[in-house]
Amino acid sequence: MTAGDIAAVPARRRRARRFVGLGLGWSLLAVGFLLAFFLLPLIDNGIKSFFGPDGFSTAPYRKLLSDPYYLAVTWRTLQVSAIVTVASLLVGYPVAYFFVRYAGRWQTLMIMLLIAPLLTSIIMRTFGWQVLFARRGVVNVVLRDLGIIERPLNLVNDPAMVYVGLVHVLVPFMVLSIAAVLQRIDPRLEESAMILGAGRLRAFLSVTLPLSLDGVATGCILVFMLTNGSFITMLLLGGGNVVTLPLLIYQQFNLTRDTAFAGAMGNVLLVFAVACLFVQLRLIARRGVKA
Amino acid sequence: MTDRPALSVALEDISKTFGPVHALRPTSLSVEPGEMLALLGPSGCGKTTTLRVIAGFETPDTGTVRIGGVDVTDLRPNRRNLGMVFQNYSLFPHMTVGQNIAFGLRMRRVDKATQGQKVRDALALVRLAGFEDRFAHQLSGGQQQRVALARALVTDPSVLLLDEPLGALDKNLREGMQFELRQLQKRLDITSILVTHDQEEALTMSDRVAVLSAGEILQVGPPSAVYERPRNRFVSEFLGTANVFEATVERAEGGRLALAVAAGTATVRSLVPGEGILGGRRLVAVRPEKIDVARNGDGIPARVVEHVFRGSYHAYSLEVPGRAVPVFAYRQTPLVDGAALAPGDAVRLGWPAEWLVLLDDEAP
Amino acid sequence: MRARRRRRTDWAKVGLGTFVVLFFLFVMAPIVVVVVVSFGEAEFISFPIQSVSLRWYRRIVEYRPFIDSLLVSLQLAFSSALLACLLGIPAALALARSQRPLAQALATFLLAPLSMPAIVLGFALLYYLSALGFGVSFDALLVAHTVIAIPYVTRNVIAVYRAVPGDLEEAAAILGAGRFETFRLVTLPLIKPGVFAGSLFAILISLDNLPISFFFGTSSTNTLPVVMLSYLQNQFDPSVAAVCTVQMALAVVALLVVERIGDIRSASV
Ligand SMILES: Nc1ncnc2c1ncn2[C@@H]1O[C@H](COP(=O)(O)OP(=O)(O)OP(=O)(O)O)[C@@H](O)[C@H]1O
Ligand SMILES: [Mg+2]
Question: For the whole model, what pTM was predicted?
Fold first, then answer.
């Protein structure tokens, strides 16, 4: 403001004060904490990955992007996430649909059963699969008793087990995301499509499914993001057959302590996560506009 | 509740903007001690903002708020000793009725025994004795409303602010509460400001009405004066129904104007008090119940289009050739010259000169 | 015509219903199996079990690392949740109702740790905190777990506070309550469900956290999941099942407590 501007204002304008609620300043403690212990460490890690023992170097990244083994690991990380996401969607959508349209008084029970796994540790659930698929585990025993197999199958270290374990851990997130959106869709929309002559399936495909895509997208991003960072399932159920970036970081840290390389892998993982977060924010923003 | 002199409230040149929105243009308003003033206006005109400025929740950009003559503009809401009833009551859901009402007393460090006594008195005042231990969600809308009133009154506030206090009640309950609230306010002799967008409520409950539009107070006065002598077209049409005509000033002398209203093939001439320039075009208004309907004569020719019986009166809508909007006439009886008016009848319209209201607006 | 339509409706329902039952069998199977195995008698893991015993629960008590790490985990979970509440509640209250773009951006930032792979964060924090002199210590663990806890507290409190009408606090103010009294007597009781739900999730996540905790593992700072993982990699006996079952029981108790105090339905995972 210049002196002229002030003269132009007839009476001094009072500053608005706040009498209830807290000002934005109150968020600074938490924001500062996360700046110091969340954002800075990640940035620091990003910078450090470019500095080896002999100064600036892009060697870790060159290794990561040229070595066929590491390229394959990066590629597999995305692949596993994609497969788990699609599988969770295929398994989760019907469950979410049943929950919203048919469950009725069973809804409370279903919610409890969906939340129950979240109360158990990942180790517990992974361990449970190990027991079930062990040499003398239930699955082998049942299959043998039924005469389907003669000798117990070696299921524990099969790559398929990793997918089963991951879907098991992540599918509740998918169901809850989709159900949240389905709940807001009026069932009469589907009914009116049927009155207009659409078959049951057509009505679903042309009315409910498109309207629920929002929830599908939310759930898919969430599951993709969470799979991207998982390694315990790969570690305990994969038997070294499904190596992804997080697992490799874990192994490198435990065995070789090659921190620059582990840091570089972490940064690649981070880029994937930031991309997911970006898509997620776009989804939220779009929904905000609609609401 | 104790005897304390009622206090006045004064707004002096208050203005308030929210970004680009002028919620209040420089506005002055004074409320006399013990008076019930209604703030009336369409949605978004700044009623709630006015109330929140008085309460201290909004800081005005300019101007001064005085309560009992004291400048309170910079006083925090909790120090203004006001009572307020919110539109949706805003009872604390985690407290019982008793705790809700005692809250203000607790803040004033009143001792427990006195608190209990005052809560009982306040509940008796709003005819809810014995409801202390209920929670708000266990009460009906009308009961919640009365608890909110008791909570606002128990601290013996100097001014009572009411933001659409009856807006959430159904019609029957609302009419009962209007009466009850008004009686209570008179008995306690407490200066009150009532925000409403219901014109009937404003007219029946208040000593004076202030009509707002787009952040400006257009007219303040006793209900009958504002109703019968609206200052401009907006007030005339917002408060009740008005038939607005264009008039030409034929003579202007000694504070009186001779106006000619031409409609259809006829011209009605009336002499009204007011200032104006010769040949000027002005708007005038006539309330539907002041319209005279005759079978013949030299009034404005019109045709009955519709007749609606509204219980206490008959409403007619009449078509005047050359006029886009119908003229409304309310009558106690459907009979004109011994025969009931019916759609299709040709009639002549006029009005007593004293009920022709000269509005501030120039005719377009 | 009518009958046929009704039968078709049933088919969809029956088909989906069967699928849902199978789904929940799939969801519950590994959990139930672990609980059952933990009550086994045999030296090795077998399912179904031959006879019931509590020997593996006794083994937990005897095997020091389990108990020690459980205590570390509990201490860590509760103190990080507390710290997250101290930092996150004021932030949530400040950000929840503001329409300003800055407020929305800050709220998004406070939730960001949820979207980042924990293993990367753990790795980065280890070297960062070491450079700061924290090194591998309980304090370092506490900082790391608080980073993860803040989003849960913030998100739940924001959600609950948004649903609290603003005029309740104004009503308190006009009745004579100052800022602090308004907060203590009105705001805090009303956001309590959000605080409890947020803390519950923070505690559960902390108790189960492996990707961050294992970076900070020493004999005195090993958390329960870290000890369980290394035990699992070396031995394969039912004591891990017993530990898992105890951990789950603790979580269920915590959930029930929160459910009594607050409204869990208002919580978001
Ligand atoms: N906190 C705010 N931020 C931005 N604009 C606001 C705010 N409060 C009010 N306004 C704007 O100021 C104007 C006056 O609002 P106010 O609430 O006083 O209207 P009102 O007369 O009470 O209307 P209603 O009858 O709908 O309650 C409106 O245009 C409104 O959009
Ligand atoms: Mg309003």
Answer: 0.84
